[in-house]
Design goal:
Structural class: mainly beta
CATH superfamily: Hexapeptide repeat proteins
Number of helices: 0
Number of domains: 1
Order of helices and strands: EEEEEEEEEEEEEEEEEEEEEEEE
Strand order of the largest sheet: 1-4-7-10-13-16-18-20-21
CATH topology: UDP N-Acetylglucosamine Acyltransferase, domain 1
Number of strands: 24
Radius of gyration: 17 Å
Strand content: 25-35%
Length: 192
Protein backbone atom coordinates (compact mmCIF):
# COMPACT_ATOMS: atom_id res chain seq x y z
CA UNK A 1 0.00 0.00 0.00
CA UNK A 2 1.32 3.43 -0.88
CA UNK A 3 -0.55 5.31 1.88
CA UNK A 4 -1.40 4.71 5.56
CA UNK A 5 -4.86 4.45 7.12
CA UNK A 6 -5.13 3.80 10.86
CA UNK A 7 -7.28 0.70 11.56
CA UNK A 8 -9.84 2.78 13.51
CA UNK A 9 -10.61 4.97 10.50
CA UNK A 10 -13.47 4.35 8.06
CA UNK A 11 -12.90 4.71 4.32
CA UNK A 12 -16.06 4.46 2.20
CA UNK A 13 -16.30 3.14 -1.36
CA UNK A 14 -14.70 4.80 -4.38
CA UNK A 15 -12.30 6.94 -2.34
CA UNK A 16 -8.98 7.93 -3.93
CA UNK A 17 -6.01 8.36 -1.58
CA UNK A 18 -2.66 9.55 -2.94
CA UNK A 19 0.84 8.20 -2.35
CA UNK A 20 2.38 9.03 1.02
CA UNK A 21 -0.87 10.24 2.60
CA UNK A 22 -1.52 9.35 6.25
CA UNK A 23 -4.99 9.13 7.79
CA UNK A 24 -4.94 8.88 11.57
CA UNK A 25 -7.26 7.58 14.33
CA UNK A 26 -11.07 7.67 14.17
CA UNK A 27 -11.32 9.57 10.88
CA UNK A 28 -14.02 9.01 8.24
CA UNK A 29 -13.59 9.60 4.51
CA UNK A 30 -16.92 9.49 2.64
CA UNK A 31 -17.66 7.99 -0.75
CA UNK A 32 -16.11 9.51 -3.87
CA UNK A 33 -13.76 11.78 -1.93
CA UNK A 34 -10.32 12.42 -3.42
CA UNK A 35 -7.25 13.00 -1.27
CA UNK A 36 -3.97 13.93 -2.96
CA UNK A 37 -0.47 12.72 -2.23
CA UNK A 38 1.60 13.47 0.89
CA UNK A 39 -1.38 14.68 2.93
CA UNK A 40 -1.81 14.33 6.68
CA UNK A 41 -5.34 13.79 7.92
CA UNK A 42 -5.37 14.08 11.72
CA UNK A 43 -7.39 12.29 14.36
CA UNK A 44 -11.21 12.49 14.25
CA UNK A 45 -11.42 14.18 10.83
CA UNK A 46 -14.50 13.85 8.66
CA UNK A 47 -14.24 14.31 4.88
CA UNK A 48 -17.62 14.53 3.16
CA UNK A 49 -18.89 12.83 0.04
CA UNK A 50 -17.22 14.00 -3.16
CA UNK A 51 -14.84 16.40 -1.39
CA UNK A 52 -11.55 17.05 -3.20
CA UNK A 53 -8.37 17.52 -1.14
CA UNK A 54 -5.21 18.58 -3.01
CA UNK A 55 -1.60 17.48 -2.57
CA UNK A 56 0.49 18.24 0.52
CA UNK A 57 -2.53 19.27 2.62
CA UNK A 58 -2.45 19.08 6.43
CA UNK A 59 -5.77 18.77 8.23
CA UNK A 60 -5.37 18.79 12.00
CA UNK A 61 -7.55 16.99 14.58
CA UNK A 62 -11.33 17.40 14.91
CA UNK A 63 -12.06 19.03 11.54
CA UNK A 64 -15.09 18.26 9.36
CA UNK A 65 -14.70 19.09 5.66
CA UNK A 66 -18.28 18.82 4.39
CA UNK A 67 -19.56 18.26 0.85
CA UNK A 68 -19.27 21.51 -1.07
CA UNK A 69 -15.81 22.36 0.34
CA UNK A 70 -12.84 21.88 -1.99
CA UNK A 71 -9.25 22.20 -0.84
CA UNK A 72 -6.35 23.03 -3.19
CA UNK A 73 -2.68 22.01 -2.73
CA UNK A 74 -0.55 22.79 0.35
CA UNK A 75 -3.41 24.07 2.51
CA UNK A 76 -3.09 23.94 6.30
CA UNK A 77 -6.31 23.51 8.31
CA UNK A 78 -5.80 23.95 12.05
CA UNK A 79 -7.41 21.90 14.80
CA UNK A 80 -11.16 22.19 15.29
CA UNK A 81 -11.67 24.52 12.33
CA UNK A 82 -15.30 24.51 11.20
CA UNK A 83 -16.76 24.56 7.69
CA UNK A 84 -20.44 24.92 6.84
CA UNK A 85 -22.22 24.02 3.61
CA UNK A 86 -25.76 25.41 4.03
CA UNK A 87 -26.49 29.11 4.61
CA UNK A 88 -29.87 28.62 6.33
CA UNK A 89 -29.99 25.15 7.95
CA UNK A 90 -33.07 23.78 9.69
CA UNK A 91 -33.26 20.31 11.21
CA UNK A 92 -36.65 19.64 9.62
CA UNK A 93 -35.71 20.80 6.09
CA UNK A 94 -33.29 18.90 3.85
CA UNK A 95 -31.17 21.25 1.74
CA UNK A 96 -28.56 18.89 0.28
CA UNK A 97 -29.33 20.21 -3.19
CA UNK A 98 -28.47 23.73 -2.03
CA UNK A 99 -24.93 23.24 -0.70
CA UNK A 100 -22.93 26.41 -1.18
CA UNK A 101 -19.46 25.82 -2.63
CA UNK A 102 -16.36 26.94 -0.73
CA UNK A 103 -12.95 26.83 -2.39
CA UNK A 104 -9.69 27.05 -0.44
CA UNK A 105 -6.84 28.11 -2.72
CA UNK A 106 -3.27 26.84 -2.75
CA UNK A 107 -1.12 27.58 0.27
CA UNK A 108 -3.89 29.03 2.46
CA UNK A 109 -3.83 28.63 6.24
CA UNK A 110 -7.03 28.17 8.24
CA UNK A 111 -6.30 28.83 11.92
CA UNK A 112 -7.41 26.69 14.85
CA UNK A 113 -11.06 27.06 15.89
CA UNK A 114 -11.86 29.35 12.96
CA UNK A 115 -15.25 29.11 11.23
CA UNK A 116 -15.63 29.36 7.46
CA UNK A 117 -19.17 30.25 6.39
CA UNK A 118 -20.04 28.45 3.15
CA UNK A 119 -20.02 30.16 -0.22
CA UNK A 120 -16.88 32.16 0.56
CA UNK A 121 -13.62 31.51 -1.23
CA UNK A 122 -10.24 31.65 0.44
CA UNK A 123 -7.48 33.16 -1.69
CA UNK A 124 -4.04 31.99 -2.64
CA UNK A 125 -1.73 31.93 0.44
CA UNK A 126 -4.28 33.80 2.56
CA UNK A 127 -4.19 33.40 6.32
CA UNK A 128 -7.33 33.02 8.45
CA UNK A 129 -6.39 33.69 12.07
CA UNK A 130 -7.25 31.39 14.96
CA UNK A 131 -10.83 31.82 16.11
CA UNK A 132 -11.83 34.02 13.15
CA UNK A 133 -15.33 33.78 11.66
CA UNK A 134 -15.00 34.28 7.91
CA UNK A 135 -18.19 35.63 6.32
CA UNK A 136 -16.66 36.98 3.09
CA UNK A 137 -14.17 36.00 0.40
CA UNK A 138 -10.54 36.17 1.56
CA UNK A 139 -8.10 37.96 -0.78
CA UNK A 140 -4.85 36.36 -1.94
CA UNK A 141 -2.17 36.82 0.77
CA UNK A 142 -4.76 38.49 3.06
CA UNK A 143 -4.69 38.09 6.84
CA UNK A 144 -8.23 37.85 8.27
CA UNK A 145 -8.88 38.07 12.01
CA UNK A 146 -11.81 38.63 14.34
CA UNK A 147 -15.55 37.96 14.44
CA UNK A 148 -16.66 38.70 11.84
CA UNK A 149 -13.25 38.38 10.23
CA UNK A 150 -11.84 41.47 8.55
CA UNK A 151 -8.76 42.05 6.43
CA UNK A 152 -6.12 43.11 8.95
CA UNK A 153 -2.85 42.70 7.03
CA UNK A 154 -0.96 40.64 4.50
CA UNK A 155 1.13 37.45 4.68
CA UNK A 156 3.85 36.11 2.39
CA UNK A 157 4.00 32.69 0.75
CA UNK A 158 6.26 31.66 3.65
CA UNK A 159 3.85 32.67 6.41
CA UNK A 160 5.59 35.91 7.36
CA UNK A 161 3.82 39.24 7.82
CA UNK A 162 4.33 41.59 4.87
CA UNK A 163 5.19 45.19 5.82
CA UNK A 164 2.12 46.65 4.07
CA UNK A 165 -0.75 48.70 5.42
CA UNK A 166 -4.17 47.38 4.44
CA UNK A 167 -4.81 49.74 1.51
CA UNK A 168 -1.75 51.87 0.83
CA UNK A 169 0.12 50.85 -2.33
CA UNK A 170 3.51 49.37 -1.58
CA UNK A 171 6.31 47.12 -2.80
CA UNK A 172 8.44 44.61 -0.88
CA UNK A 173 11.32 42.36 -1.87
CA UNK A 174 11.79 39.23 0.25
CA UNK A 175 15.56 38.77 -0.08
CA UNK A 176 15.64 35.46 1.79
CA UNK A 177 13.26 33.80 -0.69
CA UNK A 178 13.89 36.03 -3.75
CA UNK A 179 10.25 37.01 -4.17
CA UNK A 180 8.77 40.42 -5.06
CA UNK A 181 5.41 41.43 -3.54
CA UNK A 182 3.35 44.37 -4.71
CA UNK A 183 0.19 45.83 -3.15
CA UNK A 184 -1.81 47.79 -5.70
CA UNK A 185 -5.53 48.63 -5.71
CA UNK A 186 -6.10 46.43 -2.64
CA UNK A 187 -4.55 43.34 -4.27
CA UNK A 188 -1.22 41.69 -3.47
CA UNK A 189 0.66 39.97 -6.27
CA UNK A 190 4.02 38.25 -6.20
CA UNK A 191 6.67 37.08 -8.63
CA UNK A 192 10.01 35.39 -8.17
Amino acid sequence: MDHYVHPTSVIDEAVQIGFGTKIWHFSHVSANAKIGYNCTIGQNVFIGEGVSIGNGVKIQNNVSVYAGVNVDDEVFIGPSAVFTNVINPRASIERKSKYATTFISKGATIGANSTIICGNNIGYFSFIGAGAVLTCDAKDFGLYTGNPARLSGWYSMYGERLPFSIKEENYYYDEKNSIHYELKNGIVKCKS
